[in-house]
Structures are given as C-alpha cells and as structure tokens.
Amino acid sequence: MDGERDELADRVRALLGVAPGIEERRMFGTRAFLIDGHILVGARRGGALLVRVAEENGATLVLRPGVSQALMGSKTMGLGWLDVDASALRDDDDLVFWLDVAREDAGGES
After folding, report:
1. Contact at 8 Å (CB) between 24 and 32?
2. Which member of 47, 56, 66, 89 has the lowest number of beta carbons within 10 Å of its beta carbon?
C-alpha cells in the first residue's frame, strides 16, 4: 500500500462528496475517481494527482509548478493527462483547484 496515495484518495473523496455520477475504482495502480464513467482524477503513488483535462487547457496547465504530462509506464500521455506532484497539493485549496479544472473539462476530448 502507498500511504501517500491513500491519503490523497481520502482528501479527494472528502472534497468530491457524494456528487451524482461520481464513483471510485482501482485502475492502473491508481485510485481513480470517475464522473459518468470517465476518469476525472486519480490518486497515484507518492501522492501525485492524475488529472484529466481538455488538451487545449493542458498545454497551459502543464506550465504550472509541480505539473507534468502524465506517464503511464514508460509512455508519455497526451496533454489531456497531467500529473500534479504532491508538493503542489499541500492544502485543500490547491486540490480543489485541480478538481474544479477536471470537472470543468470532463466533457472535453482528452
């Protein structure tokens, strides 16, 4: 078990609450949170947050401190998938920002 991943998953769960259409699944070593069957965010090893965004927004968001294009194994994902390092998620305001971005972009192509 990865304590940092579990702690982040607990924070995400608490902030998302029981919103309609939200479910949680284990996927690809991540505690994924889905909305209407599509990945919204995922708590990853080391406390990093996987965030699904619209690719046009990802090109700007990837420039923020602690943010990079997500890696799945050795493959770099497109700009619609970002990893946010634990250092950029120190408080709930930081985490809420990323949850809001993911929810706003949930309908976009990634």
Report:
1. yes
2. 56
